[in-house]
Structure formats: structure tokens, C-alpha cells
Amino acid sequence: MDTRLLHTFTTLARTGSFTAAAAELHLAQSTVTVHVRSLERELGTRLFDRLPTGATLTESGRQLLAEAEEVLDAVARLRARCTDAGAVRGRVLVGTPESLCSTRLPGVLAAMRTTHPEVDVGLYAAGTAECVEGLRSGRLDLALLLEREAGFPDVTTEPVAHEPLTLVCAPHHPLATRARPATWADLATESFFLLEQGCSYSDELERRLLAEPGAGPRLTRFGSVDAARSCVAAGLGLALLPLTTVGEQVRQGRLARVSGPRFADVPVLLARHRRRWAAPASRAFARELVRHLSG
Q1: Most confident segment among 93-107, 122-136, 244-258
Q2: Reduced to 3 states, what is the DSSP secondary structure of residue 65?
Q3: pLDDT score at 87
Q4: N or C of the chain: less Cβ packing under 10 Å?
């Protein structure tokens, strides 16, 4: 069996679109169609339902998908074994929260260029749910999760660092110069700019605020640390953010830390798919990441 057909099949299964699969594989859309039809003819079954909204796996297609991924992993292992004696090379796609993209990972990328110059690392800013889905679909090789726990049966995780959190406001906000620490009752009357749903520490803060008797916080969700930070600096409310994302602004006096309840550090978890084989480039990046962050 031509493994190119399996590669096209798994890509179409992941993207759900002939157009998107063709773009990712750098093929003409007609070639993707020919590959899929050839595989269906060879196996004697229909693998996709062609719908106006895209391509959806049939029951036969769903059964084939896991086995096709195993075959492609085995082929990748064979190829890697033949080149293990040389320099590690290849592309690694890593899903990561936006806050780590801008603070923790530039140093890791710089180290990788020194230790493994032929490894190309692509970073994809995403929350936990999107990262886990990326690992499951094969779109991502590794992911970093800001979670206290990660109960995904098909994903393995290991803690590699901890992110301290801090509550911040504008320097002219009343809580910035308050003589006594703010209580939960005080905070439950404020406006907050939280990160998108699925951000573990933002979700925890929301639950805690809404549990306060008579709570009436005004909660606004953003998908961007930058947007939340800018709104806080403008005096519109408070935000709970990783200290690494606001440290410079606090030092420059553009933001102020709020004295109040203590927030536990959030673990940084390195996540991999439990069954999928890790290529040498992926293993090299994981080692550099652990060395850099744990240090």
C-alpha cells in the first residue's frame, strides 16, 4: 500500500476539508480526491461522506484512522533509524499558551538553534482544549499546558516548571494604594479581565468570585494576555496573570500588584500523545525545554 495515500487520508480526516488538506500537503485538490478514491477502491469501502460542510469520516474511516496513524508512525521510525547517526533534523509543532510563547519559549528556541540548528520549531498559541485536540489529531507533536491536573487518558504529562500568578491593577486604582489587603468580599465587587474559557486559573478565579455571598463582579473574557493587560493599565479593572507577563510593566510603574488573597503557582505541564511515536527532533526539543525551564 502506498503510504502517501494514508498520509492524505489522515490529513483529510484531521482537517475535514479537501481544500485545507490540499493546502497542507501542497497538492492540488484533485490529487487529494484521487488519493482518497484510490484508497477507498483498494480497501473496498467508503472512508468519507462528502457533505456541503466538508468531509466526514464514515464508520469504516474511523476504524481505519488509528491503524493508519500507527502505520505512518512505524514508517517514520524506520526512516529516523536510518538517519539517527547524523544530525537531528526535522520540524516540531508545539502548542502553548500565549503567555509562555512570549516569555518562556524564546530562550528555549535560542538554545535549540545552538544545539540542534537543523530542527525547525513551530509554535502554535492555544488553550488546553485546543492543544489536547492537536495532540490527538497529530497536528501537534508536543504541547505545554498551564493546568493543575490534566486528566486526559490518551495524553501523558510531566511538570517542567511553575508559573507564579499575580493580581494586577492600574497604579491609580483604589486597590493599588489600599492600606490593608483586599479580601474576597472586596474583590467580588470589582471588574475583572480574564483569559478565555478553559484557562485553568481564570476559571478558578471566576468560581471563587461568584461563590462569594452577594457577589457581583463584572467579568470580561479575552483570548489575549495583551488585551487583558491593556485594559487593566487603562484603569478598567483587574486581571490575574502570570508574573512573567506583567513583571516589566510593574517595574516601570504602568501596573501595580494588588495585595490580597494568595494564588498558588500554576504547573507548566509538557504533554505528549500516549501512543504516538516521538521523532528525534521532538525528543530533542522536549529535552531542551525541560533543561531550560527546570533550570
Answers
A1: 244-258
A2: helix
A3: 65
A4: C
Nearest residue to 181 (alpha-carbon basis) of 249, 262, 241: 262
Residue 243 CA to residue 289 CA, distance in Å, equals: 20
Query: For residues 192 and 83, what is the distance between their CA atoms, to the nearest angstrom?
Result: 52
C-alpha dist (Å) from residue 275 to 14, 25, 60, 83: 17, 24, 21, 22
**What number of other Cβ atoms are within 10 A of residue 73's Cβ?**
16
Check if the beta carbon of residue 238 is closer than 8 Å to that of residue 228. Answer: no
Per-residue pLDDT band at 82 (split at 50, 70, 90) = low
pTM for this structure? 0.71
Measured at the CA of 195, the angle between CA 197 and CA 102, to 5 degrees, comes to 125
DSSP 174: G
Q: Is 70 exceeded by the pLDDT of residue 271?
A: yes
Give me the helices (H) in the chain, please.
3-15, 18-25, 29-43, 59-83, 98-103, 105-115, 128-137, 184-187, 200-210, 225-233, 243-251, 280-294
85 phi and psi angles, rounded to 5 deg: -70, -20
Length of the chain (residues): 295
Adjacent-strand bridge partners of 273: 155
Exposed/middle/buried for 284, CB within 10 Å: 0-12, 13-18, 19+? buried
Q: How many CB atoms lie within 10 A of CB 183?
A: 11
CB distance 288 to 105 below 8 Å:
no
